[in-house]
Write a structure and sequence with these properties.
The structure holds two protein chains of two kinds. Chain A is of the alpha+beta class. Chain A is built from 13 helices and 20 strands. Chain A starts with a strand and ends with a helix. The longest helix of chain B is centred in the first third of the chain and has 13 residues, at about 20-30. Chain B has eleven helices and 14 strands. The two termini of chain B are about 15 Å apart. In chain B, about 60% of the residues are buried. In chain B, the strands form two sheets. Chain B has a seven-stranded mixed beta sheet. Chain B has helices spanning about 20-30, 55-65, 75-90, 105-115, 160-170, 195-200, 220-230, 245, 270-280, 290-300, 300-305, and strands at about 10-15, 35-40, 45-50, 50-55, 70, 95, 120, 125-130, 135, 150-155, 175-180, 210, 235-240, 280. Helices cover about 35% and strands about 20% of the residues of chain B. Classes of the chains: A alpha+beta, B alpha/beta.
């Protein structure tokens, strides 16, 4: 998923059948005060970070004067919410709210289509609501979500008759917005009815399907990738991996770093990774990385990421693993690995490296690694689990 | 026998003139697959190996005796269009190999396939192989014999690589396969475990089923349901990795977009429990799959197993 921050989401929501409050991005208390003055003094100040539940951390505050807006901004700027340092706030005109609702759209594995989720109990953590308070409906993505379906949904949720027209128009427009923008999760919490009878979007969160960014170049330019599945900022190594992906797009790579782990893990194939990680964790050791890379002719890329992982000071060992069905000739991986080993200055006698890479030309790969006696190279002579067990054994040998 | 694909299945390759497709079409033909046509808009009149290329699926269908299965090598951005074209042309089975297809596109593909009663496999399928008969997609590359041997166990997996590896494990323990279907790891895809298991259930040569599952989604839960209510009676051996993933913060995903444990839902441990309650044999270590499968085969046909036949 790729997070689009609230100001950009709200800008994209303009022109639909609901009110979107005006707002400004500010980086100081002073500019926040000025913004509040421009926006009519009664504003909401929100921390601008790619994480939900900001209110819980004190990252959302209401102000009724420009001075208060400035004070709140200064308090919020410099906070750290879920590991994200707050360097910007969003100062937004306060809406005159009557009722608060909850709205979300996401693809559903159960229904194999988009699902819209709605509740008349908005503004709270949706997980705390019981199933009785939530209604949902499946959406056909190949057709515009019609107003009448939105009315059905609103009625089932318990929206009052007097509000049903405006609320359902907003719901329909929000559903179609979500699908048009390839949302992986689009949440409006709260969606509000206003004292003047209109509907407004008070809080809006959009995570876009990363696989669809190619057809949304404007969002691709501003979306923050990878952050939301981690719930924390990317580490230096993770940022390095992202930049490497941009520099060399072939062989798309995913890397997650675990601070508490110290075994470098470079597995190829999602399922292979899961099996290998489980085998490692079962032994009591912890991985420093989880990794996947699609196939391709990318020795350079594999060299650079392996070197980056090997340079983590806390690392005690390296595991490289893949499936027997791998299509990439194994020497491409091992040549990259060899360059990384040469590049890094380590005492290899105390640093186990275990490689399990069956596949095309694996015999040649074995020959290439002969000059590194401290590297264990396996093909299909062991299972993935067996190779991880070998690594664990060697680690015991080192600490003994 | 097999499901979905055998030596007589007439196969169409979409995106046939791409680099990857050309390579795999050769392997498919070498393996005995009946590839009757290819489609690559703008390349009508060309040939890839012995296979004639057409501009449209419609033309390919009318220029041949008919097409039973379409396998698409087109990239993710074009996957939906290619799948819709094959579905629209009335091809009964459509296999989409592309990784990274947007959710919106997958949803449309799944929807369209259902409307037309077409069996969609994928997207992000590694392919299908019926050992000794035919293969579509990448399964096994140029050395499929290294992993796949004919036999009586149906294999279905959310992970292409681990599914192939599971077949390798089974093969080296003397347990051959009728068909291996990689259904892909995506949240939204054409076939889940149930659809494939139901086909194995109807296949007279398949005596047991092996499933490789993952975290996230409800594929495993739906399979458990199908076993509980008697739609699947053949014995099933399942393995679901992800204990480490389960111990990580909610929402994290390592490889497949669909393998996510979110707010406790989709946890491998829960899936294993549900499957076990339904009567599925769930193994804790991947390498135990072969022994567990041999055991279930022994239970159903002790005389055959004693003679060493599988």
């Amino acid at each position: 998923m790729a997070v689009v921050l609230e100001p950009a989401v709200k800008a994209r929501l303009a022109g639909l059948r609901f009110v979107v409050p005006e707002g400004r991005v500010c980086e100081s208390g002073q500019s926040a005060s000025q913004a509040a003055r421009d926006l009519g003094e009664r504003v909401v100040v929100k921390a601008l970070v790619p994480t939900g539940r900001k209110g819980v951390g004190g990252g959302v505050r209401i102000a009724s004067s420009a001075m208060e807006a400035g004070e709140h901004s200064e308090a919020i700027l410099g906070m750290t919410l879920n590991g994200f340092p707050v360097t910007q706030v969003y100062v937004e005109r306060q809406l005159e709210i009557e009722d608060e609702f909850y709205f979300a759209v996401m693809p559903s594995g159960v229904h194999q289509t988009y699902e819209v989720v709605f509740s008349v109990h908005g503004g709270v953590n949706i997980e705390e609501l019981g199933a009785d308070h939530i209604v949902s409906m499946c959406v056909d993505p190949d057709r515009e979500f019609p107003d009448y379906q939105a009315r059905k949904l609103a009625h089932r949720a318990g929206v009052e008759s007097a509000q049903i027209r405006v609320v359902s128009s907003a719901i329909a427009d929000l559903v179609n917005f979500a699908i048009r923008n390839d949302a992986q999760l689009f949440e409006v919490n709260p969606l509000v009815t206003l004292t003047d009878g209109n509907v407004g979007v008070a809080g809006a969160m959009l995570s876009v399907d990363e696989s669809a960014l190619f057809r949304h170049p404007d969002m691709a330019a501003i979306a923050l990738r990878g952050v939301d599945s981690l719930g924390r900022p990317l580490t230096d190594l993770e940022l390095h991996a992202r930049r490497l992906n941009e520099e060399i797009p072939e062989g798309d790579m995913r890397l997650i770093e675990f601070d508490q782990g110290d075994i470098g893990f470079l597995t190829l194939g999602g399922g292979c990774g899961l099996v290998a990680l489980d085998a490692l964790a079962a032994s009591g050791e912890m991985p420093a990385t989880a990794f996947d890379m699609t196939s391709g002719n990318i020795e350079e890329k594999f060299f650079r990421i392996t070197a980056a992982v090997l340079s983590l000071p806390r690392l005690r060992a390296l595991f490289v693993g893949g499936n027997i069905s791998a299509m990439t000739p194994v020497p491409i991986r091992t040549r990259g690995l060899i360059r990384a080993l040469r590049h890094c200055d380590r005492d290899w006698s105390n640093f186990p490296v275990v490689v399990r890479l069956p596949g095309p030309q694996d015999e040649e790969a074995a020959r290439l690694l002969e000059e590194f006696p401290h590297v264990d190279f396996f093909t299909d002579d062991v299972t993935i689990e067996g190779a991880v067990e070998r690594l664990v054994q060697r680690l015991k040998g080192v600490s003994a | 026998m097999s499901i979905l694909l055998d030596g007589k299945t007439r196969v169409l390759v979409q995106g046939i003139t791409g680099w990857t497709a050309r390579r795999h079409v050769k392997y498919m033909l070498d393996y005995g697959t009946t590839v009757v046509a290819g489609v690559s808009p703008g390349r009508s009149g060309h040939r890839v190996e012995t296979v004639p290329v057409f501009d449209t699926v419609e033309e390919a269908v009318s220029s041949t005796d008919g097409i039973d299965l379409a396998v698409s090598f087109v990239p993710a951005a074009l996957a939906k269009d290619a799948a819709m074209e094959a579905i629209d042309a009335g091809i009964p089975t459509v296999v989409s190999l592309a990784e990274g297809v947007p959710f919106r596109d997958s949803i449309s593909m799944v929807h369209q396939a259902r409307e037309h009663r077409v069996q969609l496999i994928g997207p992000n399928s590694q392919g299908i192989i019926s050992p000794g008969e035919a293969k579509v997609g990448g399964s096994g590359g140029d050395l499929p014999g290294r992993m796949f041997t004919p036999g009586s166990v149906g294999v279905v997996s959310r992970s292409g690589g681990m599914g192939a590896e599971t077949c390798w494990l089974l093969s080296r323990e003397g347990v051959g396969q009728t068909t291996y279907v990689a259904i892909g790891g995506e949240l939204i895809s054409g076939a889940g475990f149930v659809e494939i298991a139901e086909r194995f259930e109807r296949d007279t040569d398949t005596r047991a089923i092996v499933c490789f599952g993952e975290a996230g989604g409800v594929r495993e839960e739906l399979l458990a349901e199908a076993v509980s209510d008697g739609r699947i009676r053949k014995p099933i051996v399942a393995f679901i990795p992800g204990d480490f993933l389960e111990s990580c913060p909610s929402g994290m995903s390592f490889g497949h977009a669909g393998a996510v444990v979110s707010e406790g839902r989709g946890a491998p441990s829960a899936k294993r429990r549900i499957l076990e309650l339904a009567g599925v044999v769930v193994v804790k270590k991947w390498s135990h799959i072969a022994a567990a499968t041999r055991e279930v085969l022994r239970d159903i046909e002790p005389e055959l197993s004693a003679s060493g036949a599988t």
